[in-house]
Amino acid sequence: MAAKKQPPLRDRQITSRILISAVGSLLAKKGFKGLGVNAVAREAGVDKVLIYRYFDGLPGLIAAFAQQEDFWPSPVEMAGGDLARFSKLPLDKKLSLFAASFIQALKKRPLSRAIMAWEMIEPNELTEELERVREERIMAFFQMFFAKDHTGIDLQALVMLVGAALSYLVIRSDNIDIYGGLDLATDQGWDRITSVVNMIIQQMVTPE
Amino acid sequence: MAAKKQPPLRDRQITSRILISAVGSLLAKKGFKGLGVNAVAREAGVDKVLIYRYFDGLPGLIAAFAQQEDFWPSPVEMAGGDLARFSKLPLDKKLSLFAASFIQALKKRPLSRAIMAWEMIEPNELTEELERVREERIMAFFQMFFAKDHTGIDLQALVMLVGAALSYLVIRSDNIDIYGGLDLATDQGWDRITSVVNMIIQQMVTPE
DNA sequence: GACTTATGTCACCGATAGGTGATATAAGCA
DNA sequence: TGCTTATATCACCTATCGGTGACATAAGTC
Q1: For chain C, which bases have at least one atom within 7 A of a protein Cβ?
Q2: Which one of A122, A142, A196 has the shortest CB-CB distance to B161?
Q3: How far apart are CA A112 and CA B35, in angstroms?
Q4: Which of A83, A154, A167, B75 is 20 to 30 A from A35 (CA-CA)?
């Protein structure tokens, strides 16, 4: 909640930033359910008409919000923090590290999870753009490090399947503790998940 | 849209059914976005107070709706249609058949997908009940057919991981065509997915 | 027939939604 | 200084939300 009874700032830049960050905090607090012009303006401690004036409405404001945040993990983050080291690893180690980094990256981004969930129910211009960026990023990463396999397996399908599973489970962990008997609320539960992922990787990329 | 100017039916059973089916059609038409007491009553052509009287509110009505619909695939459906035959299969065949059946079951249930997506963004009393039923069902199925493995692998984690991946991908296919380079809009794309799933199963449950 | 109960409609409540026009005032410029 | 413009607030609009109390009427019971 921002302060309210100071004299108004009369600084479009700052006010815009306040509005943008209000989107973030509101999103974190209430999710997309509570995301409306009135609520955002209230959260920012600013009149809602400014949303229309500065951003041409809520979609514009959200678009501005999305641009300044690092929603999707960067390639270096998905590679565990060190691209050079990552590129020298054998394929199975690469995949394991990628999976673990992916989980961590998602776990630390509640807003990204909220948006991923949002995309599933309300596809619109905004989520389309976010989706496009994400697809682009993940494909670039894949091309860079996993493209030239000749093992005969469909590495892309494998990676994306695991990515899909991990995405789903991390998103679900916001709402439920148990999924199919797996405990999504504890490290032990996640150890089971990473273990089975690593086992799959072992079995798949080092045949026999 | 139900008829409106007939004399009222004065039949609780029928009126209740009208309300319940109104939930379904409204959900199909507008998604959960437009799902409220007013909207449901309007769709049913009936006064909204009956929702409170007969179902003790919208959560109760939705719970009633959920019970009569086959949201979640039954064990027999997940077993490919024939439980006896299924139970005689070797473990890897069981798993493959389960995966394929699971995809088909989800693909033919747009309402289930919508609700699954809903659960991710708006956990509430309504979705909690639905979630509980689903967890129960899937655990019962797992216990029945996959519980007694002695292969040393975490079969439960494997099954749930694959289930999570498939759930995510089918839900996403409602909104996007391409996920991580996988074509979710064509049978060929899904063939890639089922192939890699089957390969994982082969590698995991029949070591060497 | 008279009475009770169940079924249903209607009118209304306060809260909140998205959206707009009028107004105050500070800042920039001549 | 005086004028214009940008910044921000305020008051208000209509629509809809979830929810409730009062009332009409048909059905069932004695």
Answers
A1: 6-11, 16-22, 26-27
A2: A196
A3: 25
A4: A167
